């Protein structure tokens, strides 16, 4: 074990980090020099057509997680290390239904399935949208958990476990709901930090439909004996709740040295907003469709979902199906050479949520604006980048106004922080410096919450962020004044 500069021991932690398109199991080693990450297992993830809908192949997903934990145990053992704990983060809102015997009754639906659209009106007939927002502070999205649950036919004897909690349950046998993910359900009181039980009653849902809440840093439980033995991990290895909503872990790892910052967690989706101490529950905030989700240490992630790099990855998938395989770096370089002022789309339009022929859908959206977008990957790529940067700028400006908080710098974390074109366009659009990195923000946030729970790190978010800054190379983009002719 190493010793940190603050006098506490470092450690080795396993982070299970799963997004909508891929997942990883990562070893995080905490030392005085920061956090060193080692990916020991990568695996694909994605929705499948199953039983009449778009679902997650959860059985396959869990098998990959288990394979990753075995790999982590092997790698750690070779180094003479013992894994101190395991933390799990995934995307939000989706859940699996488990019966009294702990069996998953069906593969979980994906938020990309359209089934919840029809449930919006019936839910709003029972719960006024203004009242929903005043309590939950949650951005309206048709796939929020509250609308998904309204489509279920029979929940008697079943319990809903959000995806990271479902994985933790299979590992430990303990049913819990971690708060940062609970705050995305539409059934969570943003001020009280508890379940909004009156909403369960209004919708005819049992108040114990979800397990009890726990906070980042709390422990779900320890590995079941047979799980520990099969994974090659010590009996008694704890599974620690982190910011189980991946954005909560990512925001915890924003390397901010000031309060006046905005963040963009840029990946499949872009989550754009501010870190606050209290939710903003005004009518103006609701009309602007901002959300108030829980962060680590009781913070509020005041943000909007903006379209993300899903748009580009779906375009690449379509182009590959047509036999065209452009290399991403070359594609972005060519897009950067195009002049500013080209056509744009509303990148967070629900029109782009479902998988389909994305290049043609983007061109169709441009046509509806009265503009024309060439049917060429370079032009389409530049349109996506410009549209995302403009969406980021609009969202940050609105967040400043609604929260009464000025922004001096914009931090971009996640995969999008590697995209030089997107970062520069964001600096240009916002008129503020952009600090890019770390790429692995979600895993870093996951590991550091575990490390603090184990006593291998100390302090609040500012102290955790200083550990990240010590071990991360950041890039800074200054805004350029571009004149569009």
Description of the molecule:
The protein has 485 residues and is of the alpha/beta class. It folds into 2 domains: 12-225 and 236-240, ATPase, nucleotide binding domain (Nucleotidyltransferase, domain 5, 2-Layer Sandwich); 256-437, Nucleotidyltransferase, domain 5. The chain contains 17 helices and 21 strands. The chain has helices spanning 58-78, 120-126, 129-136, 145-149, 163-172, 179-182, 197-202, 225-231, 246-252, 283-287, 310-321, 328-336, 358-368, 377-403, 420-430, 441-453, 461-470; strands at residues 12-18, 22-31, 34-44, 47-50, 53-56, 83-89, 95-98, 159-162, 177-178, 188-189, 194-195, 213-214, 219-222, 238-240, 261-266, 270-276, 291-294, 300-306, 409-413, 434-436, 475-477. The strands form 6 sheets. The protein has a 7-stranded mixed beta sheet, with helices on both faces. A 6-stranded mixed beta sheet has the order 3-2-1-6-14-13, sandwiched between helices. Strand 15 and strand 16 (270-276) form a beta hairpin. Helix 14 (377-403) packs across helix 15 (420-430). InterPro entries: ATPase_NBD, Carb_kinase_FGGY, FGGY_C, FGGY_Carb_Kinase, FGGY_N, Rhamnulokinase. Residues 262-454 form the Carbohydrate kinase FGGY C-terminal domain. It is an enzyme of class 2 (transferase).
């Amino acid at each position: 074990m190493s010793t940190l500069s603050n006098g506490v021991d470092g450690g080795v932690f396993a982070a299970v980090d799963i997004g909508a398109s891929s997942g990883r199991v990562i070893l995080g080693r905490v030392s005085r020099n920061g956090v060193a990450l080692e990916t020991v297992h990568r695996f694909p993830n994605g929705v499948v057509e199953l039983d009449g809908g778009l679902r997650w192949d959860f059985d396959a997903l869990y098998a990959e997680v288990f394979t990753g934990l075995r790999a982590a145990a092997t790698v750690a053992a070779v180094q003479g290390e013992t894994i101190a704990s395991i933390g799990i983060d995934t995307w939000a809102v989706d859940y699996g239904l488990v019966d009294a015997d702990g069996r998953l009754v069906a593969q979980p639906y994906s938020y990309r399935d359209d089934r919840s659209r029809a449930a919006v009106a019936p839910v709003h007939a029972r719960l006024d949208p203004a009242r929903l927002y005043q309590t939950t502070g949650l951005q309206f999205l048709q796939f929020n958990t509250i609308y998904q649950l309204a489509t279920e036919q029979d929940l008697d004897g079943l319990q809903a476990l959000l995806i990271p909690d479902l994985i933790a349950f299979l590992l430990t046998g303990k049913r819990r709901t971690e708060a940062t993910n609970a705050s995305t359900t539409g059934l969570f009181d943003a001020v009280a930090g508890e379940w909004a039980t009156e909403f369960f009653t209004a919708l005819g849902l049992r108040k114990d439909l979800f397990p009890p809440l726990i906070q980042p840093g709390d422990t779900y439980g320890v590995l079941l004996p047979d799980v520990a033995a099969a994974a090659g991990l010590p009996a008694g290895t704890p599974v620690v709740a982190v910011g189980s909503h991946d954005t909560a872990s990512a925001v915890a790892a924003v390397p901010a040295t000031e309060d006046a910052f905005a963040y963009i967690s840029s990946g499949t989706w872009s989550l754009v907003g501010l870190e606050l101490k209290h939710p903003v529950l005004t009518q103006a905030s609701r009309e602007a469709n901002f959300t108030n989700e829980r962060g680590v240490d009781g913070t509020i992630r005041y943000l909007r979902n903006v379209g993300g790099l899903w748009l580009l990855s779906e375009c690449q998938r379509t182009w590959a199906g047509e036999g065209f395989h452009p290399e991403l770096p070359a594609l972005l370089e060519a897009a950067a050479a195009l002049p500013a002022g080209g056509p744009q789309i509303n990148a967070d339009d629900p029109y782009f949520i479902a998988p389909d022929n994305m290049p043609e859908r983007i061109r169709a959206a441009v046509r509806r604006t009265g503009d024309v977008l060439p049917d060429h990957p370079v032009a389409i790529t530049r349109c996506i980048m410009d549209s995302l940067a403009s969406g980021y700028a609009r969202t940050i400006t609105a967040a400043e106004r609604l929260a009464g908080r000025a922004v001096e710098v914009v931090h971009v974390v996640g995969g999008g922080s590697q995209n030089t074109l997107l970062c520069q366009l964001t600096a240009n659009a916002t008129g503020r410096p952009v600090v890019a990195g770390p790429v692995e923000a979600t895993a870093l946030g996951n590991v550091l919450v575990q490390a603090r729970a184990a006593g291998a790190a100390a302090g609040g978010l500012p102290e955790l962020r200083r550990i990240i800054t010590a071990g991360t190379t950041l890039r800074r983009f200054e805004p350029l004044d571009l004149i569009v002719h």
